[in-house]
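Handover notes (outgoing to incoming on-call)

Open items:
1. Glycoside hydrolase family 43 protein: sequence verified, structure written out, both below. Nothing else pending on this one.
2. Nothing else urgent.
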Amino acid sequence: MRRLRSSAPVVVVVAAVLLLAGCGSGGPEDPLTDDTTGPPTFANPVADLGNDPYVVEDGDRYLMLEARSNGELWLTASEPDNLTDLWSGTRQKIWEPAALGPACRDVWAPEIHHGDGRWFVYLAATSCDGDNANHRMYVLESEGDDPFGPYVDHGQITDETDRWAIDGTVLDHDGQQFFVWSGWEGEVDGQQNLYIAQMDGPTSIIGPRVLLSEPTEEWERQGMPVQEGPQVLERDGALHLVYSTSASWTDDYAYGLLTLTGDDVLDPASWTKSSEPAFSKTADVLGPGHGSFVLSPDGQEDWMVYHATRTDGWDRMIFAQRFTWGEDGTPDFGVPVPADVEQAVPSGQVAAGR
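Glycoside hydrolase family 43 protein structure tokens:
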């Protein structure tokens, strides 16, 4: 969950090769150190290749988690107070799939969360034969309070139906934890919905899964009816789920928004869906979606990191930009900032190498 900075660790993760480059490394010509050059800036893309960036905070640093093509998970910790130059930080492999077993191939969209002095990694993976129908969610737990591990593999995290599942995330609300993910209603591909279930701890689900939302709108059904990549976004007591919608391989991949307007997070009637995409393509930026949300280093600005493309399909790059909030308390993501357009760096950012 996106939260305000505090002394407790928060995290940053990216399920992709998020080589966030941007602001130089210091020196007399570095705009972050030379006030005569004007405000420091960066330009998208911050990485030329990447998917499903998940970013959170850990004290004064950001963490990045990426799934390599061979299924290995690598974690990067940024230099202090630097969001757009993440890749210059410390990087280490924290997990690799077993040569045999149910979580063997096609590791997708890992996330990392902190709680009770441990780190928990959630990932989707499938069987060694690469059959997409076998994708399920799995969870790892650190042995201590170091995000670099080592980690204990707790295996699958699932409800009693044990159906296809990807893109799991954790929602904390009113002292309870809930798992939210993208899944199939049955055992056949064709539509992805959002499901929610109560957790009895970071590594297990109790009770039945609940169908939270379906892709019923035309803008959610381009290429295939899809809702995936749910992310929790909370501000001033208002709770939102930002999700990605329409087929990920199309230009029409976009953000939808669910807002809790009732009292029971497990009741679909308590959630209100946006009437139109919350963030969608332009002539210059296609298929924006499946990202994450953090605060600037000084905690004064809201930022999102997401993937998009200038061509089509899964030839994705990683973009970053600031977003604001509307008077009604909902996030205002604006429109995607095109590649090569200079943006001010996040407030409070310190140049890499300082």
